[in-house]
Specification:
286 residues; alpha+beta; Hsp33 domain; CBS domain Like; five-stranded antiparallel sheet; 10 helices; 12 strands; 33% helix; binds zinc ion
Length: 286
């Protein structure tokens, strides 16, 4: 179990923490990302998975899209309500020198001239969506701004990806949310507990579990574990879904494709390829 959802015993603060090392390493292998692009996509996947674990309905999903005008292009992640997540980055080869503090320059490749938009499909007639301007392109700060302005929930979001020479060493994150009944005194107590906290990758690298992280980031509260999740990088694509997307292109487009021979459609999330012969393309009917 790599994700834990907990609540303080006074019921005023919730926290979700995850070790997403395997998820981010899987994403790196699928998308062949540079270290800095791995960190960017990994932070987004981690944040989106944490948001997925906070969804209530079994079939609910959350989609987070970031486009900051940087060399990475747009980044996308989708999570189900079990925190199983998939994602893509327009330019996996985006690169940038390390920052002056020696860290990967995620904000540099994501850019800060754009928005983060969140769409939640909660099984209602219309999906619920919100959008805010990017703060830094560092992703955790941008999601925090989204929670503050779009959901009006005071939130602390921390996301980290540590990339080594051969792949992802550690990745994870946590989201602390103040529930509506929480007052200023609770907010101050949460803030006090966060002062001087090590980074999430430091905590996980030191052997702490997600449950340890939940308690460590709220040192002045009694915390109760609510749920545990075993989250993974998961893509639900099928040949039927790809056929549906092809049909949506329309008859003319399909006829053009059929003329240029067999087509291989590659899933942008998991890299799986689906081949269609000209006859199969022409046979697709709405
Ligand atoms: Zn797929």
């Amino acid at each position: 179990m790599n994700t834990v959802r907990a609540i303080t015993s006074d019921g005023l603060v919730s926290v979700i923490a995850a070790d997403t090392t395997e998820i981010v390493e899987t994403a790196r292998r699928i998308h062949h990302t540079t270290p800095v692009a791995t960190a960017a996509l990994g932070r987004l996947l981690t944040g989106c998975s944490l948001m997925g674990c906070a969804l209530k309905g079994r079939d609910d999903t959350v989609t987070v899209r970031i486009n900051g005008g940087g060399s990475a292009g747009s980044l996308l992640a989708v999570s189900d309500s079990d925190g199983n997540v998939r994602g893509s980055i327009a330019n996996p080869g985006a690169d940038m020198p390390l920052r002056y503090d020696g860290k990967l320059d995620v904000g540099g490749i994501v850019g800060r001239n754009g928005t983060v938009s969140v769409t939640k499909d909660l099984g209602l007639k219309e999906p619920v969506s919100g959008q805010v301007a990017l703060v830094s392109g560092e992703i955790a700060e941008d999601l925090t701004a989204y929670f503050a302005y779009s959901e009006q929930t005071p939130t602390v979001c921390a996301l980290g990806v540590l990339v080594g020479k051969t792949g992802v060493v550690k990745a994870g994150g946590y989201i602390i949310s103040l529930l509506p009944a929480a007052g200023d005194d609770t907010a101050e107590l949460v803030e006090k507990g966060l002062a001087g906290l090590p980074s999430v990758t430091e905590m996980l690298s030191g052997g702490m579990t997600p449950w340890d992280v939940c308690r460590r980031v709220l040192p002045d509260f009694e915390t109760e574990k609510l749920f545990e999740f075993g989250t993974e990088y998961f893509c639900p694509c099928t040949r039927e879904r790809v056929e549906g997307a092809l049909i949506a292109l329309g008859k003319d487009e399909l006829a053009d494709m059929a003329e240029s021979g067999e087509q291989k459609i590659r899933c942008s999330f998991c890299g799986k390829e689906y081949a269609f012969t000209p006859d199969e393309l022409l046979a697709l009917q709405p």
